[in-house]
Every structure is written in structure tokens, then in C-alpha cells.
Amino acid sequence: MDNLGSTTAMNWTFFAQSLHLLAVILWIGGILFMDGFLAPALRRAIAQAEPRARLLYVLFRNFFAAIWGAGATLVITGYGMVFLRGGFGVLGSAQWVMVVLGTVMVLLALYIFFVPFLRMRAAVLGGRWDAACAQAGRIRLLSSVNIVLAVPTVLSGIWSIFGAPF
Fold first, then answer.
1. 91: left (phi over 0), alpha (psi -120 to 50) or beta
2. Any idea which UniProt keywords this protein has (predicted)?
3. What residues does each domain of the chain span?
4. Which of 94, 99, 131, 137 has an alpha carbon 20 to 30 Å from 21's alpha carbon atom?
């Protein structure tokens, strides 16, 4: 019976890890693409605030729709794996770094959605194009913070599995 229970826990852990990694790739890869490539290209290619703000709003809206799913997956699988392993008391330091920074990243993403993105939405709906572009800039700046936080978060995940390189 112990072996069966152990196998089931391993299968759920593998499933949770796989979903977790796919959600990280979608979220962080999406931020890198939007902030690092698409937004700067749009700024250079579309000088007028109105069409740029309209396009960025639609892109951010669609991106956030996908990110809600990825974020929920990250929270459920991340905390689920903590409890599958026995709870917070059994976590190593690399796992603690991953949990804490990952939680900060999710909270920052929620802030980005509920403050600058919704302000951008209101500005677009009100035809205030410069204000909408300013909010897009705030979204990009705060998303960059999440990219910076992603580096130690991902590295701590790797270190918790394979061991630290030092």
C-alpha cells in the first residue's frame, strides 16, 4: 500500500511540476516578448498615441486573459507541491526563495492588472490616449520588475531540484 501511495504522489508531483513549468514559460516568456520586443517596436513604428494605445490595450487585454489561467495554475500547483512534499516546514532554502519570490511576482501581476491596466482601460474608453500610453509604460516598468524577480525564482527552482552549483 505504501508503494502505491508513493507512486500516486509522484505522479501528482510530476503532473503539478509539468503544469507549473508550462505556466511559467507562458507568463515569463510572454512578458519578455511583450516588454522586450513588441512594445518597443510599436513605440518606434506607431508615433501617434491613439493607434498605439488602442493596439497595446488589446494586446494587454488578451495577454492578461491568458495570464489569469497561468497565474492560477502557478498558485495551485506551487502551493499544491508544497503540501504534497509535507508542508512549509520541510522546505529547503531554495524552495523558500522560490515560494516567497513567486508569491511576490503573482501579487505584483495582480497589482499591474488592477491598477495600471484598469487605468489604461479607462483612459482608452475615455479617449485619453496620452494617459493610456502612460499607463502602458507603467505596466511595462512593473512587468520588468517581475522579469528581474523571475531570474532568482527560476534559479531557486532549478537549485531545489538539482542542487546549488556552489
1. beta
2. Membrane, Transmembrane, Transmembrane helix
3. 28-163
4. 137
Q: What is the pLDDT of residues 38-70, one digit of tens each?
A: 988 998 999 999 999 999 999 999 999 999 999
* Percentages of the chain per state (helix, strand, coil), in multiples of 5: 90, 0, 10
For helices 129-162 and 93-112, the axis angle rounded to 10 degrees is 170
* The three three-digit cell numbers of residue 166, written as one number: 556552489
Residues whose CB is less than 8 angstroms from the CB of residue 23 and which lie 6 or more positions away in sequence, other chains included: 69, 70, 71, 73, 74, 77
What grid cell was written down for 94? 531554495
In whole angstroms, give the CA distance from residue 16 to residue 45. Answer: 41
CB contact set of 128 (below 8 Å; sequence gap of 6+): none
| Comparison of pLDDT for 1 and 79, the residue scoring more | 79
Q: Per the confidence metrics, is the pTM higher than 0.85? A: yes
